[in-house]
Design goal:
The protein has 400 residues and is α/β, with parallel strands linked by helices. The protein has 13 helices and 23 strands. The two termini are 28 Å apart. Bound molecules: ligand PMT. Ligand PMT is lined by residues 196, 212-216, 255, 274-278, 280, 305, 307-309, 323-326, 338, 350, 358-360.
Length: 400
């Protein structure tokens, strides 16, 4: 049994796809899970609590207070009990309330108290699904660490055809089994992460560089490795050490060396995250001997480095490509241009106008822009937490 001893909370909200939940519960129980169902009041119209309590072997809960027995259902105890909480089907209304921290029913109060991973299966008619408000709510929930099981396309209860169907119970139970057995969908996948600055030699003594410390990229490499990914970290000159022993680190100096290293590993990788601050230009000619001071002014002719991300954007096949954008003005506009021009799946924007963001700090403040979703802005956090957010985002992109 693949779910032996696992405690799973299933939240059922008021959508027609609730008719699939009895089969899901039966599948989970057969695999050895303990299942507790919480329904919103409207869900009762779509599937009976009697059916769900019979299959789960536990009373189905909806209200804070059990008036008959004079007791109450503690949302905190329920939340702490669970190893995983799945909300399926998750209506537009429940997703909106989750995103805004509302707790006007037992299910939402349990969600707000949950310490375990929460998974949602957004399910609704295609126009509600496509609405910008719904898309923003889903994007913000994903950004806060909620895992999203994407809706499927097909025939909908309204008679329309499009995106909005809840996946079949077998797909949901497989997802849960996969979650407990592999934890992260990224486990076993191969990633390249770049970090730090590049130094472009002027002569053997001097170089053109930048202020990147390497902290951001190295935190991302650690976060990926913690989730079981194979990580090749290609780091420019940086004194920051990675923490995860499974990481393979290649230290390089110049943009050209970084390009070479990325190219070497790209074909067999599943994704590339470029957090490095790569020099756009290098001296046309690097002198082999120290340049002697003679004149009062001195000119260095520069030539453009290859844009590594753009090159990988041309070569990419299965790979997920996530770039960074470091901006000082018109940040979203410039980041979106880079997203499309370099053929990326997502771009992480950090702006030097935001206090505590960018070079050197232990903190960062990011907005992630992707092709699929509206931009998601995160609060200022430690770079370790920011790395977790980026990797969770990558995880969600990997599912779709
Ligand atoms: O290292 P820290 O001190 O922790 O600071 C982190 C950081 C500020 C360096 C990091 O968060 C960041 O923003 N990295 C990208 C900086 C940058 O070069 O941005 P850009 O907008 O110039 O480049 C856009 C993207 O293209 C980046 O992903 C960059 O890696 C990539 N690029 C740029 C030039 C080039 N020749 N090749 C590239 O691949």
């Amino acid at each position: 049994m693949k779910l032996s001893g696992k405690k799973i909370l299933i939240g059922v909200t008021g959508g027609i796809a609730a008719y699939k939940i009895p089969i899901l519960i039966r599948n989970l129980i057969k695999e050895g899970a303990e299942v507790q169902v919480i329904m919103t009041p409207d869900a009762h119209g779509f599937v009976t609590p009697l059916t769900l309590s019979t299959l789960s072997g536990r009373p189905v809960l909806t209200d804070f207070f059990d008036k008959k027995n004079g007791t109450w259902n503690s949302h905190v105890d329920l939340a702490l009990w669970a190893d995983l909480m799945l909300i399926a089907p998750a209506t537009a209304n429940t997703l909106a309330k989750m995103n805004h921290g509302m707790a006007d029913n037992l299910l939402l109060a349990v969600y707000l108290s949950a310490r375990c991973r929460v998974v949602v299966a957004p399910t609704m008619d295609l126009d509600m699904m496509a609405h910008v408000a719904t898309q923003q709510n889903i994007a913000q929930l994903a950004a806060s660490g909620v895992l999203i099981i994407p809706a499927e396309k097909g025939f909908l209860a309204s008679g329309l055809t499009g995106e909005g169907r809840m996946p079949e119970p077998e797909t949901l139970s497989e997802y849960i089994i996969h979650y407990f057995n592999h934890k992260s969908i990224l486990a076993g996948t191969s990633w390249i992460v770049t970090a730090g600055p590049t130094f472009e030699a002027i002569d053997p003594i001097r170089y053109i560089g930048n202020h990147s410390s390497g902290k951001m990229g190295i935190a991302i490499a650690d976060a990926l490795a913690i989730r079981g990914a194979h990580v090749t970290l290609i780091a420019g000159p940086s004194s920051v050490l990675h923490k995860q022993p499974t990481i393979r680190r290649e230290d390089i100096t110049s943009a050209e060396e970084m390009l070479e290293a990325v190219e070497k590993h790209f074909a067999e990788s599943d994704g590339l995250i470029m957090a490095a601050a790569v020099a756009d230009y290098k001296p046309l000619q690097a002198h082999t001997k120290k340049i002697k001071k003679s004149e009062t002014t001195f000119t260095i002719k520069l030539t453009a480095n290859t844009d590594i991300l753009a090159r990988m954007g041309q070569l990419k096949q299965k790979q997920l490509l996530i770039g960074f954008a470091l901006e000082t003005h018109d940040a979203i506009k410039h980041a979106e241009e880079k997203l499309h021009k370099k053929n990326l799946d997502a771009i992480v924007l950090n702006s030097l106008q935001d206090a505590g963001a960018g070079f050197g700090y232990d903190t960062n403040q990011i907005t992630i822009i992707s092709k699929q979703q509206s931009p998601v802005t995160f609060p200022l956090k430690s770079k370790t937490e920011v790395a977790e957010d980026i990797v969770s985002f990558a995880e969600n992109l990997f599912h779709t």
